[in-house]
Every structure is written in C-alpha cells, then in structure tokens.
Amino acid sequence: MWKKKENETPAPTPVREPEPRASRPAPTPRTERAVIGPTVRIKGEISGEEDLVVQGKIEGKIEVKGRGVTVGKAGKVNANIYARSIRVEGKVCGDLFGEQEIVIEAEGDVEGNLVAPSVRLENGSKFKGSIDMERSTPPISASKPSTQAPLKNDDGRVPEMGPKQTKPSPSPGPGQLRS
Fold this sequence. Notes:
Layout: E1 33-36, E2 41-48, E3 51-54, E4 57-64, E5 68-71, E6 76-88, E7 91-93, E8 96-104, E9 109-111, E10 114-115, E11 118-121, E12 126-128, E13 131-132
Parallel strand pairs: 1-3, 2-4, 3-5, 4-6, 5-6, 6-7, 6-8, 7-9, 8-10, 8-11, 9-12, 10-13
C-alpha cells in the first residue's frame, strides 16, 4: 500500500538544543553543630568550635569558642558553660559565661551564676543565682581566681578589719536607720 519512494530522503530529526537552566541559588553555608542525643551521658570536658545542642546528660565543663550552646528540653547539665551565646530549655546546674547573651526559656531551670552582656529570663523560667551584665566582663576561666577590689569607705580609704569585724558595715543611705 504505501511504498517508499526511491529518490526521497528521510527528513532529518530535529536536534534539540539544551534549554537554559534556571541558575540555582548558591547553597547557604551549613552551620556545623553537634548534637548530644537524649540517651547519651558524658562525664568530662567538652570543647569545640561549632554550635552544640545538648539533649542528654553532661557532667563536667563545656567550652565552645565563638559559638552557641543550647541545652534542649531533655538536656540535663551539671557543668560550667562557656560560649558566645547560651540558650537553656532544660536543666543546668553550674555557672554560665556568655560572650554575647544568655537566654533561659520558659521551660528552662538554672541554678548558678550568669555572666553576659545580655541576659533574658522568660516568663515561667526557674533561676537561682546571681547575674553579672557588665559589658566589659570577658568570660572567666574556671582556673582564674577572683580579683574583686576591696570595699572602700566614702572617703575612698580601705577600712581596717579588726579581729571581730569581718566586713565593714555599709553606711546608711537616705531614709535608712543606723542600727
């Protein structure tokens, strides 16, 4: 029925040119972070240069230079923590030293001292300790002794300590009675 004509050449197949691809956005740099899972228990010193998320139990010392530490809801830490920023959602018993900030979330429970230029305690959080928010205070290493300046009188002199007196009594302020 249909016969191929002898002098007819087959039609060339069209060559497809590659379609221009939409340029992919460069991948965002992945922030490295280490995660300590809820079944992991560590005793000792943890140090590193990446963000750390703690969901397990740690006893000892945590030092993360220039990065952040997050104690998750399941995390239980019995250690001093040194980091750029510290976020607590779980339980921490120890001193926290933040280069930038410390945040205790509503579920967080901290027993220890906080040292950072910015400290935020959210409603519902539990905290027992002291807060030092001096901007010039660098994170204090646990090995350095305290160098607190001696107390001075109103005239600028350091009071003499007698055998029975251990601390100078503060002078009363306006509206206060001297006992």
